[in-house]
Design a protein that fits this description.
2 domains, 13 strands, 11 helices, Peroxisomal Thiolase, Chain A, domain 1, about 25% strand, alpha/beta, four-stranded mixed sheet
Length: about 325
């Protein structure tokens, strides 16, 4: 039976590094305050002229090279982002244009932090049905341009960052490799607890001077509610996806949790009773890059030789929507 497996990974982050001490010059905060609450020490923010689709292209070319493929070998693009370069169209078509592959279908997934998991599920389904055989799945975000960089907005601004990660999914007939199961959920009851209100098509003119003055174009978050739901939903989803393949947390080689907050990852690890060597985090160096966190984690692990054939890798995420989900992959 045809399934999909990852044959190449890549990542790209802006060259500009913003430390906690740098943020302390912009708002009332400190390195100690940020580390205690988030675990973050530094993050990458763009400089003028850089784009989310540009970072995605760099990550995609790296993934293609690892898979020993050319852009022309791709059958489709799935791009997960909550921060597209433009309101319309999505970033997927710009990535295709920059890769020089006109005519290749491109789909954007707007599921924010869980977007990459959703994107993988879509691409895996396309491959399993025989529609396509080689798909680029990208998670790319520019969050630094949509935050209130002030003391008032510090609870969000110290967390989020910019970056991109990419994988190549290819069809395989090997039943001992590839994606084995997915688990996806959402609950719009809590949509306003992590969102950007404007611009929006429900508003005449989509955004007004009054909205800008009120900061309704900035990302806002109820941190306590997000934390409370994330530390419950992520372990639940991991257990569900493991149950689908008859496995337990003890069988996990490596858990790659969405890098929302190091404290959340620690609580998820504790809830699943996983050892330190069963979980990989890098939020300390990159911050929360939303849909890009998991593919960046994947690439770093591949580069470090953390996976060997047959290892069970589980990815899990929670974010805006609220939406959440997990994926189980046999390397």
């Amino acid at each position: 039976m045809t399934r999909s497996r990852i044959t190449g990974t890549g990542m790209a982050v802006p060259a500009r590094v913003v430390t906690n001490d740098d943020l302390a010059q912009m708002m009332d905060t400190s390195d100690e305050w940020i580390r205690q609450r988030t675990g973050i020490g530094e993050r990458h923010w763009i400089t003028e002229g850089e784009t989310g689709s540009g970072l995605a292209e760099k990550a995609a070319r790296q993934a293609l090279a690892a898979a020993e493929l050319l852009p022309a070998n791709l059958d489709a693009i799935v791009c997960a982002t909550s921060s597209p370069d433009h309101f319309i169209p999505g970033n997927g078509v710009f990535i295709g244009r920059q890769l020089g592959i006109p005519g290749v279908p491109a789909l954007d997934v707007r599921q924010a932090c869980s977007g990459f998991i959703y994107g993988l599920a879509v691409a895996d389904a396309w491959i399993r049905t025989g529609l396509y055989r080689r798909i680029l799945v990208v998670g790319t975000e520019l969050q630094s341009t949509g935050m209130d960089i002030s003391t008032e907005g510090r609870h969000v601004a110290v967390i989020f960052a910019d970056g991109a990660g990419a994988v190549i999914l290819e069809a395989t007939e090997d039943e001992d490799r590839g994606f084995e199961a997915f688990d996806l959920h959402s609950d719009g009851t809590y949509a306003e607890m992590l969102w950007v209100d404007a611009p929006g098509s429900r508003y005449k003119g989509r955004i007004t001077p009054e909205m800008l003055e009120a900061g309704r174009h900035f990302l806002v978050m109820d941190g306590k509610e997000v934390f409370r739901h994330a530390v419950t939903r992520m372990p639940e989803s991991v257990m569900t996806v493991l149950g689908k393949i008859g496995k337990t947390p003890a069988d996990i080689t490596l858990l790659l949790p969405h890098q929302a907050n190091l404290r959340i990852s620690e609580m998820v690890q504790k809830g699943l009773r996983l050892r330190d060597d069963q979980v990989y985090n890098n939020i300390q160096r990159y911050g929360n890059t939303t849909a890009a966190t998991i593919p960046i984690l994947l690439h770093e692990c591949v580069e470090a030789g953390r996976f060997k054939r047959g290892d069970l890798v589980v990815m899990t995420a929670f974010g805006s929507g609220f939406s959440w989900g997990s994926a189980a992959l046999r390397w």
